[in-house]
Amino acid sequence: MNEDLKVNLSGLPRDYLDAAAAENISAAVSSRVPAVEPEPELVVNPWDIVLCTSGTLISCENAIVVLIIFHNPSLRAPMFLLIGSLALADLLAGIGLIINFVFAYLLQSEATKLVTIGLIVASFSASVCSLLAITVDRYLSLYYALTYHSERTVTFTYVMLVMLWGTSICLGLLPIMGWNCLRDESTCSVVRPLTKNNAAILSVSFLFMFALMLQLYIQICKIVMRHAHQIALQHHFLATSHYVTTRKGVSTLAIILGTFAACWMPFTLYSLIADYTYPSIYTYATLLPATYNSIINPVIYAFRNQEIQKALCLICCGCIPSSLAQRARSPSDV
């Protein structure tokens, strides 16, 4: 009688209480068993795939130029040393883009970020500085044509190489030495972990070098036009021939400088006005054309050169085509 009263005091039927007790027991057991969380899926940014593909193409293309110059003892003139420096810088830039992709998705850490961005900054800085050095060398070869092939020119070339690589390495070491935004995200630029001030210095330096290259190429155009006119007078060429040759030389210089500006200017200007709060798609869209400059450089500076073409033909087919062997250098080949 007392047991029935106790049960009826709850105001609930016995079968309901049994079901509730079972639910409580199952809940207690499930709380003690650790839940198995599903592994997060690795989502790859398509822009990173494009940059990695670009880096692979850059590496393969410039590795050919580096091997040709390294294994050919006849390619030791100042011009080829500078072309080799450009190819080596672009090769390292391509390797940096590949490493950046691997580290971003497989080995994520602050150390790998700093090493990767340091390598990319140093290699691209060396690439741009090598382009400036090639421009200076072309100007000197035309302005001081009689004394260009002297020992002093070789010494000056080595000094330029030491300076440009030393400066580029120092720029690449800045993020590693502490000038980064890993501790303060508010100071980040469009390229993390570079600080806004670091990106500004790189952008302003680029604009200064571009202005210097523009001035040098204007002087080169004047010298080429004067040389072409003198050659036309000496050989009694027609005015039309002189005009065609001069136009070809000026067009070549315009393509070289225009390609360089089109590749690098968007990212340079964007780095000056933007910061980490801007959408990353803008960074990718302006950075990708800058990598294309390292793809185009071997075509413009290496594979158009007759000596490198001969060396490449010797490596590929063991012979030099007669059309290439008999080709004479013209004033438009600048």
CATH class placement: Mainly Alpha
- What is the CATH-assigned architecture? Up-down Bundle
**How many separate structural domains?**
1
What global shape is seen?
globular
| CA radius of gyration | 32 Å
Distance between the termini: 114 Å
Task: Furnish the topology, listing elements before pairings.
Blueprint lengths: L1 H8 L4 H19 L13 H26 L6 H28 L4 H34 L7 H26 L19 H39 L4 H35 L6 H23 L3 H12 L4 H4 L9
Helix pairs in contact: 3-4, 3-9, 4-5, 4-6, 4-9, 5-6, 5-7, 7-8, 8-9
Describe the protein's architecture and organization.
By secondary structure, this protein is mostly helical. It has one domain: Rhopdopsin 7-helix transmembrane proteins (Up-down Bundle). The protein is built from 11 helices and no strands. The protein has helices spanning about 1-10, 15-30, 45-70, 80-105, 110-145, 150-175, 195-235, 240-275, 280-300, 305-315, 320-325. Helix 4 (about 80-105) runs parallel beside helix 6, helix 4 (about 80-105) packs antiparallel against helix 9 and helix 5 runs parallel beside helix 7 (about 195-235). The longest helix is centred in the middle third of the chain and has 39 residues, at about 195-235. It is globular.
